[in-house]
Amino acid sequence: MKTLVLVAHPHLADSSSQQFLKESLPATGIDWEWLDGQQAIDVDREQTKLRQADRVILQFPLYWFAAPASLKQWEDTVLTRKFVYGDHRYPLADKELGVVVTTGMPGKAFQRGGAEGITLDAALAPLAAVTQRAKMTWLPTLAIHQFGYLNESEKLQLVIRYQRYLTQAQPDSLTSRQTWFAERLPGMIDRLPADQQAKGKLIASVFEQKSADLDQLADTLALIKEQSDD
Amino acid sequence: MKTLVLVAHPHLADSSSQQFLKESLPATGIDWEWLDGQQAIDVDREQTKLRQADRVILQFPLYWFAAPASLKQWEDTVLTRKFVYGDHRYPLADKELGVVVTTGMPGKAFQRGGAEGITLDAALAPLAAVTQRAKMTWLPTLAIHQFGYLNESEKLQLVIRYQRYLTQAQPDSLTSRQTWFAERLPGMIDRLPADQQAKGKLIASVFEQKSADLDQLADTLALIKEQSDD
């Protein structure tokens, strides 16, 4: 899977959350691009990147209930009508589009009666409408609230959530997760420091055992279902 | 009333609808500003303008279900947290905010099942949330659909709708409209060409007669209500 990550942030170097996400990127399969870092938008190049991607991630802090201006500039420039739906051709059809949004408020602020007075889904509705117009598939948003308050354990969990959001098959089912971990765990363990290798291998063997148990359970369930269908 | 009109459009001179609206501006009380025409945003100047305005109009074509990037850039730059709600002070509180939006699609496209797949209110929800955050009053949006297809009569009506949207007291009740026309009609008639002055004066006298009739009706209604309350 090829994932294109478009980051909109006017001061990327000053953003601890964006720097964290950058360091958390999966090792392969990612085309990462910082929109504000470009002098001018190369429309052909951007359109080519979009054509080549299987999944497009729009990543930004929520400014005034929307993406920063640089993402809108990119939309207004790159997503020409002709490109997105001209002549009834939809080059982006069936590609997935996901949003990774950071906010300075807790999640509960984004509900009726909450401090922000609008849900994230409502704030992102214009982007969802673009997705719909392009016949792309909208992924449930990955919201990162108050990154600065996360503890180390939460940050480590975020690395995995983020990597899965960028590369795991959708929908986010148990099977999709299991497959993703089965593919990634060996590489993750290989990259562990020498003194943690043993622990890593223990985790891998537990994971394998649990996966085998799950497969067996699934087989049993299928058998029961078959019999009750008779 | 002081009205600040902020126009976001990357190619203003090429836009027949924006040129038309510019020519339709009321003669007085309007501070008109083209956001894309500025080299850099002067934050202090913009904030001063906002403080001085009674009504703020955001005017733009709908690009990808939102305002063009220049308006978002203006928001991200001018509407600092400190300015809008810092220290629990709300300098924009109770000012009115209205959106004048032009679209290339008919109004019916912006409903469930319509071609655009999103209502204008849903597309403008992020701006409405800004308005709410600033404790401003959101005005019902003035949508101009498919300007190029309007005939002369519809265009003349648009001039009045637009002028009223910029300067008429809210809510848009019969009384507000009547007051607005009573104030403006004499000036409008004065500016008519000589050969249309007689027609203009006839309209003015009919308007006065109808207004007097309405006032009398209102008095009668009030009397009836008073008696039935006894």
UniProtKB/TrEMBL annotation, chains A, B:
<dbReference type="GO" id="GO:0003955">
    <property type="term" value="F:NAD(P)H dehydrogenase (quinone) activity"/>
</dbReference>
<dbReference type="InterPro" id="IPR046980">
    <property type="entry name" value="KefG/KefF"/>
</dbReference>
<dbReference type="InterPro" id="IPR003680">
    <property type="entry name" value="Flavodoxin_fold"/>
</dbReference>
<dbReference type="InterPro" id="IPR029039">
    <property type="entry name" value="Flavoprotein-like_sf"/>
</dbReference>
<keyword id="KW-0560">Oxidoreductase</keyword>
<dbReference type="Pfam" id="PF02525">
    <property type="entry name" value="Flavodoxin_2"/>
</dbReference>
<dbReference type="GO" id="GO:0009055">
    <property type="term" value="F:electron transfer activity"/>
</dbReference>
<feature type="domain" description="Flavodoxin-like fold">
    <location>
        <begin position="1"/>
        <end position="154"/>
    </location>
</feature>
<dbReference type="GO" id="GO:0010181">
    <property type="term" value="F:FMN binding"/>
</dbReference>
<protein>
    <submittedName>
        <fullName>NADPH-quinone reductase (Modulator of drug activity B)</fullName>
    </submittedName>
</protein>
